[in-house]
Specification:
Blueprint lengths: L12 H11 L7 H7 L4 E5 L2 E4 L4 E4 L2 H4 L8 H13 L12 H13 L4 E7 L2 H18 L7 E5 L8 H6 L3 H4 L9 E4 L4 H4 L5 H19 L4 E6 L15 H11 L3 E5 L13 H5 L5 E4 L11 E6 H7 L14 H16 L2 H18 L7 E7 L2 E6 L15 H12 L2 E2 L1 E3 L2 E4 L7 H24 L4
Parallel strand pairs: 3-13, 5-6, 5-7, 7-8, 8-9
Antiparallel strand pairs: 1-2, 2-3, 4-10, 9-10, 11-12, 12-15, 14-15
Helix pairs in contact: 1-2, 4-14, 5-14, 10-11, 15-17, 16-17
The structure holds 4'-deoxy-4'-aminopyridoxal-5'-phosphate.
Length: 464
């Protein structure tokens, strides 16, 4: 069931844009540049389709920010929120109290998570959950009598959030440059991005080498000082970097050898995105902690959390953990998440991604490599990326600054009523998991047309 259309009398677009520019500071945005151009105003959405203030209907191949897994406009989620708001709009879980939505959601997550993971610490977002993880793994080792284990290893070009802790875990140099990040004790190793960094190595050799960079970093820091390694099963915001098959088995061997905790950041990969409930299943990883958010509620409510192993839960449970957020286990967010998980499960959405629409999208998406501008296509379930290049054979980068052609392509997509994102010169899709085969066809048609137009423009501007 979907939400009935709410026709509203909107002020003119230009007026809304001017008011937005006057008072609203946007995330990850050059404010002055946007003010000049005017933000696109999204007014409503249904399934995989957005409507803007000019009446355009736009195919959202990014599911918002990788999060609207069940699609827009689900009336059941509206009702779950309204019911919970009427019953108990807020209560905390700090001082020896709890409530039914938090009980039911944590129980359900324990069912869905790998066998050895049965406890959840709730947060309001992925960033908050990763901040929890920093404190949790350090507290874990402290309680185990190894307080010197404080170092956390992450990867360049990872994204783990925007708070000071999670932004430090992330490997985005542009973020580190602002506001004094990273915090002490966070160390980064290179990413398994074969296309951009693999040189003459085979993908498998390169994947193994990039995993072994973890062992080198552990030895450099001293194995007794390392608390954890954190990684996304498939890097998302870094450009949907699907690691070579050799990567995760070697990482798993290394974390096991040194007894280091493994944090799988499932904020994007979780809840069906890769065709299983968790990306860890798809990649064959056995994490100690999983970060969750986004698809947990399909973005209908802000909620995140850390699902932890029985071993970690037991150790952490041995003392007071001085940590928590006002909205940890928010009852309305929990109620909506529970209903969202019911929809994902009962409508067979995760299974369909694995067996039907995922393989269909993969086949169509990989056909984009026939376009002269596209070097490689990588896709797992419903997260994929293509690399734009002026020369496929050498995997060359453009002479122009990284992201110039990618941005151009994104702009052409937008003009063709398709939301795709660019990260540098990679173009990304991560559509709602309910996308139909006909909508996948539309996505690919529009992407192809946008690539044609972007190439023509890049040539006209002398960028190729
Ligand atoms: N981890 C990953 C892998 C993410 O992709 C994101 C958000 N894009 C985050 C953490 C941060 O989540 P949030 O924006 O909800 O704080």
């Amino acid at each position: 069931r979907t939400v009935a259309s709410q026709i509203t009398n909107l002020p003119p677009t230009a007026e809304l844009q001017a008011r937005d520019a006057r008072h609203h500071l946007h995330p990850f945005t050059h404010a002055a540049g946007l003010a000049e151009k005017g933000a696109r105003i999204i007014t409503r959405a249904e399934g995989c389709w957005l409507t803007d203030s000019e009446g355009n209907t736009i195919l959202d191949a990014m599911a918002g920010l990788w999060c609207v897994n069940v699609g827009y406009g689900r009336q059941e989620l509206v009702e779950a929120a309204a019911r919970q708001m009427a019953e108990l709009p807020f209560y905390n879980t700090f001082f020896q109290t709890t409530h039914v939505p938090a009980i039911e959601l944590s129980e359900r997550l324990a069912e869905l998570a790998p066998e050895h993971m049965n406890r959840v610490f709730f947060a309001g977002s992925g960033s908050e959950a990763n901040d929890t993880n920093i404190r949790m793994v350090r507290t874990y080792w402290d309680l185990k009598g190894q307080p010197e284990r404080v170092n956390i290893i992450s990867r360049w070009n990872a994204y783990h959030g925007s708070s000071v802790g999670s932004g430090s875990l992330g490997g985005m140099k542009g973020m580190h440059a602002q506001g004094g990040m990273p915090i002490p004790g966070i160390h980064h190793i290179d990413q398994p991005n074969w296309w951009a960094e693999g040189g003459d190595m085979s993908p498998e050799d390169f994947g193994r080498a990039r995993a072994q960079a973890l062992e080198e970093k552990i030895l450099e820091l001293g194995p007794d000082t390392v608390a954890a390694f954190i990684a996304e099963p498939v890097q998302g915001a870094g450009g949907v970097i699907v690691p070579p098959e050799s990567y995760w088995p070697e990482v798993s061997r290394i974390v096991e050898k040194y007894g280091i905790l493994l944090i799988a950041d499932e904020v994007i990969c979780g809840f069906g995105r890769t065709g299983n409930w968790f990306g860890s299943e798809t990649m064959g990883i056995r994490p100690d902690i999983m970060t969750i958010a986004k698809g947990l509620s399909s973005g209908y409510q802000p909620i995140g959390g850390s699902i932890v192993s029985d071993e970690v839960a037991e150790v952490i449970g041995g003392a007071e953990f001085n940590h928590g957020y006002t909205y940890s286990g928010h009852p309305v967010a929990c109620a909506v998440a529970l209903e969202n998980l019911r929809i994902l499960d009962e409508e067979g959405i995760v299974t369909r991604v694995r067996t039907e629409t995922g393989p269909y999208l993969k086949q169509k998406f990989e056909s984009l490599t026939e376009h002269p501008l596209v070097g490689e296509a990588k896709i797992v379930g419903m997260m994929g990326s293509i690399a734009l290049t002026p020369d496929k054979a050498s995997r060359a980068a453009f002479a122009a600054d990284a992201g110039t052609v990618g941005y151009l392509c994104r702009e052409r997509c937008f003009a063709n009523n398709l939301v795709m994102r660019h990260v540098g010169d990679r173009m990304i899709v991560s559509p709602p998991l309910v996308i139909s085969k006909a909508e996948i066809d539309t996505l690919i048609e529009r992407a192809w047309r946008s690539l044609d137009e972007a190439m023509a423009e890049a040539e006209a501007q002398g960028l190729m």
